[in-house]
């Protein structure tokens, strides 16, 4: 049976829209927040796994939370979205990683992240078992000291995806080169493209360029896709959701990367439209 394991950092997110820009020694008013998602499960593996599960595929999040109420809520939310939670490890006596995502009037987002665990994460037996049996594995930004173990844990038959982030702590050059050489599909934006190392001739690269343009590259061939942008105030997780939708399409035996990309884009659009609908009420 096909299954996806999405690895990386968990985050309990508090998202707000601001009436002005953040500045020192000054109060900035909050003029928007989604009271139905306060807080909400965040982090790249959650969004990737939730998108795949929403498309009807079996998906696990492989990440780490504390044993506090926030960690329990994180598990409950992912379970309610049909994501497997056996791969969510609990760090005893610790708080869960938390992020405050503050959207400013120009739509830039100030992210304040408390990672809590400073390299203390380990892969437990359930996580290794999920990775070993997963037909599809997606690496997202996460503990760098575990990347090679994650790569070594996968079977030779598994398909590997990489959601790249411009985080040189999580992705030093040696790890970028190791993942690049094994990844079947890499998701990045224009500013991250140069971080990809040597790839095979069959590697697919999905590169977002702004809010309405995506480049699909397979070997030396490139094609562009124009999309209609949404005026969404909260875009957190949209790129990860696109990746999850793309992966779900491949899990459903859709062999055409352009069609998989269209379904990934639709997954991201669905996420943003749901948020816009809640905020409009």
Model description:
The model has no long low-confidence stretch (mean pLDDT 94). The chain is globular and about 50 Å long. The protein is built from 7 helices and 14 strands. With 281 residues, the chain is an alpha/beta fold. The strands form 2 sheets. Strands 6-5-1-9-10-11-12-13-14 form a 9-stranded mixed β-sheet, sandwiched between helices. Strands 2, 3, 4, 7 and 8 form a 5-stranded mixed β-sheet that branches.
Share in β-strands: 25-35%
- Level of helix content? 25-40%
Q: Strand sequence of the main sheet, in spatial order?
A: 6-5-1-9-10-11-12-13-14
Poorly predicted runs are: none
Distance between the termini: 41 Å
User: Largest sheet at a glance?
Assistant: 9 strands, mixed
Average residue pLDDT: 94
Can you tell me the overall shape?
A: globular
